[in-house]
Amino acid sequence: MSGSTTSAASGGSFLGRAGPLVLARLFTAGLTLSIPLVLARVLNLDDYGTYYQLFLIATTLYYVLPFGVVQSLYYFLPRAEAKRPYLGQTLLFMSAAGLVGAVAVYALLGYVAGWFSNPALAEYRLPLAAYTAFLLGSFPLEVSLTSQGRTKASALVYLVSDAVRASVMVVPPLLGASLYGMMMAVAAFAGLRYLATWLVSLRGSTGPLVDAQRFREQLSYAAPFGAAMMLAIPQQNAHLYAVAGAVAPALYALYRVGCFQLPVVDLLYTPTSEVLMVRLGELEREGRLEEGVEAFREAAGKLAYFFLPFAAFLFSAAPEFIGAMFGEKFLPAVPVFRISVLGVVLSILPMDGTLRARGQTRAIFASYAVKAAVTVPLVWLGVKHFGLMGGIGSWAVAEVVGKAMLLARVPAALSTPARKLGVTDVIPWQSLGKATLAACAASAAVFLLRAGAHGAWADLPTGFLWRALPLAVAGALFFTGYLVVLHFTGVRPLSLIAGLRARRAA
To answer: Which residue ranges traverse the bilayer (predicted)?
Structure first.
């Protein structure tokens, strides 16, 4: 009795500390989402395409150059009495990484501009190099606070930093500034954030700034994750670079809008995967690993009831969604967008979390490696012969190949000596069937609505609220139809939500 009470108290304390950070991330996700939506309305297509190209370069370097060193703070700081060496050497490493990124941008942006057939890109050499250097240098800011248990401070930093970043990216163009002016403002913001990183991260820590032995341990721990990111990020972005090198900036802007994804998948997938990892660990410790397959099917089934309708709605209501969010000039992006929603469907099975929980991380690395090998020829052939659709199609095929490799490993990870599982044993067929039936019926209703209301929206007044009206009507029809069909199949949607909340609380 006392043990369960202690556990509950501990869990409540943990959730209480994590709450502000979760809320901050949700709020900042909304801020980040608003940036491309606003810029789509104030920039012309050429500048909007250039904007995406600039940040494609910066974000690629942002995820590759840290080499997992920043993320290693989550492991070392909670276990270290002297935290200052880990913080200091991480800050120095990231400052050096930022310098490497800045030099690469400044030296190579002219060549990249030629590859992208966008000579104007080279004009942004200075602000992009400065932004990249300071962005990488300030990477440890929130992580250093969270890994020390200072979650309220980390939440506050998330809120302030992302709010200011959104403002400096949106306000200058709204006031008539050029894209170059916006990039200078963003670089200045990143510089201030870099200074704040040094002031805030080291506050209250003790010990030397650098310890050679500890740094070697930190690099050894970070290397596998860093190597995986060096494969994963270029592979994920390969189609973006290939398309940017094959089309004009205005057409690239359409492609990036077609690749736009709402952060809903990560908000649901990540906590579900983490809870599943904890559950599999508990079952293994208690000698009940044979129940792991039921836990996997339950988690996947719940995700299916949310992700399948979400993907089906975005597919069926793609014209209304693109028109409302970005404007009618981006409607040619609808075919690309419909292919990109496949990523939502592929997130139903929480396979990577299952493999990590069972210590089979090599399978995850192998999937990254195969995806990278498959992506290069697919992207080259796809973009060369089929243009934009070839780019997004090559991405989709590579994602399917990677997920198939992970799925092939899941049955062995969940098997026991007494029970050998196959692929068909781990898939929640009943949940997938019911969710698919309901989602397809609701999608058909949206297509019928569009056919019946053809031209009815043409005379609507201008303004975002009026542009969003077709999307709102389609959304109401879809989700009403989805819930009604689910009800007739015996599924109670409110019980699904309650079950998901209970799982997260557990």
So the answer is: 21-39, 51-77, 89-112, 124-141, 177-196, 303-324, 330-351, 464-485
Residues 123 and 228: their CA atoms lie apart, in Å, by 33
Q: How far apart are CA 19 and CA 27, in angstroms?
A: 12
What pLDDT, on a 0 to 100 scale, did the predictor assign at position 497?
A: 55
With contact defined as beta carbons under 8 Å apart, do 478 and 317 qualify?
yes
* Cα–Cα distance, 235 to 77 (Å, whole number): 31
Contact 406, 367 (CB under 8 A): yes
pTM given for the model: 0.84
Determine the Cα–Cα distance for residues 303 and 346; give it in Å rounded to an integer: 11
Provide the Cα torsion 430, 431, 433, 434; round to 10°. 110
Q: Within 13 Å of residue 500, how many CA atoms lie on the same side as its CB? A: 20
d(CA 98, CA 94): 6
The reported pLDDT for the residue numbered 458 is 66
Cβ neighbours for 414, distance < 8 A, ≥ 6 positions apart: 289, 292, 293, 296, 354, 358, 421, 426
- Residue keyed to tokens 């989700």: 479
DSSP code string of 78-113: GG-S--HHHHHHHHHHHHHHHHHHHHHHHHHHHHHH
User: Which residue in 29, 19, 102 sits closest to 62, CA to CA?
Assistant: 102
Q: Which helix (H) or strand (E) holds 280?
A: helix 264-285
Q: Which residues pair with 419 in a beta bridge?
A: 416
**How many residues belong to the chain?**
506
Q: Is residue 331 classed as helix, strand or coil in its secondary structure? A: helix
Q: Alpha-carbon distance 183 to 185, whole Å?
A: 5
Determine the Cα–Cα distance for residues 239 and 393; give it in Å rounded to an integer: 9
| Range list of H helices, 138-211 | 140-146, 151-174, 179-201
The C-alpha atoms of residue 347 and residue 53 are separated, in whole angstroms, by 27
Residues 289-322 have pLDDT tens digits of 889 999 999 999 989 999 999 999 999 999 999 9
Cα–Cα dist 334/344, whole Å? 16
Question: pLDDT digits over 335-382, tens only?
Answer: 999 999 999 999 999 998 888 778 787 888 888 889 989 999 999 999
Which residue has better confidence, 24 or 324? 324
Dig out the tokens for 292 from the structure.
């792991």
CA dist 240 → 54, 224, 244, 257, 387 (Å): 12, 25, 6, 12, 12
